[in-house]
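Researcher: I'm preparing a figure for a lab meeting and need a structural model of a single chain. I don't have an experimental structure, so a prediction will have to do for now. The sequence is pasted below. Please return the structure as C-alpha cells so I can convert it later.
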Amino acid sequence: MSKTIKNTCILGCGLIGESWGALFLAHGFHIHAWDPDPGVRAYYADRLQRPLEQLSQVLGKPMLDAQAITAKLTIHETLASAVANADFIQENAPRENPVKTRHLRRN
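Model: Understood. Here is the structure written out cell by cell.
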C-alpha cells in the first residue's frame, strides 16, 4: 500500500534541516518544521533561501520567492504539533545519543 506524501515534517532546523527543507520545497511539499531552539525556528524561512538558490541552479527550475516559501512552510512551537499531520518525518537531531533522545522525547 502506498501513500501520497503531501506534508513533510522537519525536526531540527539547523544546517541539515535547511537542506532537507529546501529540497522538499523545491519538489512542492508543504513543510511543518520544529526546532527546540526558538531562535533557530524564528529564522528558518530566511535561511532556506541559500539552499533553494543552489537547488534552482542544479534542477534548472526557478527559485521560490519568499511568499511561496511562506505559503508552503509552517513553523511549530511544539514537536507534537509539527508531527501531527505529517506524511513523512525527517529528523535532523545531532548524532549524540543524549541530545537525540531529549529531542525525540519532547512534546
